[in-house]
Every structure is written in structure tokens, then in C-alpha cells.
Write a structure and sequence with these properties.
single chain; alpha+beta; 9-stranded antiparallel β-sheet; 4 helices; 9 strands; 15% helix; disordered N terminus
Length: 221
């Protein structure tokens, strides 16, 4: 699988059709808790055993983890906030884990939840960055009490100078809660002989991440 580099900022746009899945209901008691992005380190124990784990700091974006750097484009532009909810949040914190089943990213940034009109208009989109393109579609998001959740899958394609093609598959899920967004992204190589981590794992890890963040907030850290 090709090596993906974490981008520190993004400018995005996305393409849309269809109607959005209904977001999970918000629980006022849970959403009132103050979360600390640094508590994402508690998710370390939830990552696949044997994977190489590293800390992530500074501005983080779910789409930048796919290998889309500054200057990428998409359609329509108004979907930028869904793909990149907080491109300049220096307080963002996260973890990455790489292993035979793919590369896992989990992070927490400061962000407000998207409005229903944005969710309804951003069901499918395409992206382009230099020689890399992606076809993206919204999928069913995990239901988490007290959070608005969104999920999408993408197939990315990169044409290198020799004309060879490199492909990756991406699954991302986001939970908006307490003025923050927690997201999980898994990038896999469809040609790998190893069983890939996929959307089911992404949903499970996002639920575990929210539980760990809320547990830390409830215990005072």
C-alpha cells in the first residue's frame, strides 16, 4: 500500500445527490460534558494489536489523511465543512496505527456539527489533487447517543509518472459532540493479501473513541 502523508490543512469542495441519513438524536446530558482532545490517547488500547502506533498533533483533516494536500479540488464547494470541519485547529490530537490490515487514524478536533441541508446535499462527490482522484459516497453512520454522526467511503486512484496506477480504499466516520468532532479513518490497499480493516471496524472504533472521551470527561480527565 502506498504511504500516505498527513496534511496539516485542506481546502475542500464536494458533489452531492440524494437524501441524507437521519443523524442520531442528541443527548443533552452527554453533549454538555467538556471533552479534551488530548484524551484521545486513551484509545491506544482499542487499536489493532501489533500495529505501529504514533501520535498526531496540530491541524488534522480526515481527507488529508487520504493523501490529498493543499490545493485539492472537489465539487460542490459548499461541502467543504463536511470533509474538513476544522483545518486550522492547532489543538487537534490523534493517533495513527499501521499494520497488515491498513492504516488507522483516529483524531479529535474542535468543530460544530453540520446542518441538515449540508448533510442532504453532500451524499456523493469527486475529488482531485494533482495525479490523484477519489470517488466518495456517504454511507450509513454508526448510531451514537448524544452525537450527530456521518460516514463515507472513497476509492482513490493515483497515476504515477510511469503511467502505473495505485489504488486505495478509504472508510471514514465522524461523531460531532460537545463542540468537537471525533473521526476515524482507515486506508487500505485493495490488492493486499491481508484481510483489510473496513467500515465495521471504523464504526466500532468510533464508538470506542467517543466512550473513552466521555469517560475521561466524566472522571475529570
Amino acid at each position: 500500500m502506498r504511504r500516505l502523508v498527513v496534511g496539516l490543512a485542506m481546502t475542500a469542495g464536494l458533489a452531492a445527490c440524494g437524501s441524507a441519513p437521519a443523524p442520531a438524536p442528541v443527548d443533552a446530558a452527554n453533549s454538555a460534558r467538556e471533552l479534551n482532545p488530548a484524551d484521545v490517547v486513551r484509545v491506544h488500547s482499542e487499536l489493532p494489536p501489533g500495529y505501529e502506533v504514533a501520535d498526531l498533533r496540530g491541524p488534522l483533516s480526515a481527507v488529508s489523511l487520504w493523501g490529498f494536500g493543499t490545493g485539492w479540488s472537489a465539487d460542490p464547494r459548499r461541502c467543504v465543512d463536511l470533509a474538513d470541519p476544522s483545518p486550522s485547529d492547532r489543538g487537534a490530537r490523534g493517533l495513527s496505527a499501521s499494520g497488515p490490515g491498513g492504516t488507522v487514524y483516529v483524531a479529535v478536533v474542535t468543530a460544530a456539527p453540520p446542518g441538515p441541508d449540508l448533510l442532504a446535499q453532500c451524499m456523493e462527490w469527486t475529488m482531485l489533487f494533482v495525479h490523484t482522484s477519489a470517488q466518495v459516497r456517504r454511507t450509513d453512520a454508526p448510531v451514537i447517543a448524544g452525537a450527530v454522526t456521518v460516514a463515507w467511503d472513497a476509492a482513490t486512484r493515483t497515476i504515477v509518472e510511469s503511467g502505473a496506477e495505485t489504488n486505495s480504499e478509504v472508510s471514514t466516520a465522524v461523531a460531532y459532540l460537545d463542540r468537537h468532532a471525533a473521526f476515524v479513518t482507515v486506508v487500505t490497499d485493495p490488492g493486499s493479501p491481508h484481510p483489510p480493516l473496513g467500515p465495521v471496524y471504523v464504526a466500532k472504533l468510533l464508538k470506542a473513541t467517543v466512550a473513552q472521551l466521555r469517560g475521561a470527561a466524566g472522571s475529570g480527565g
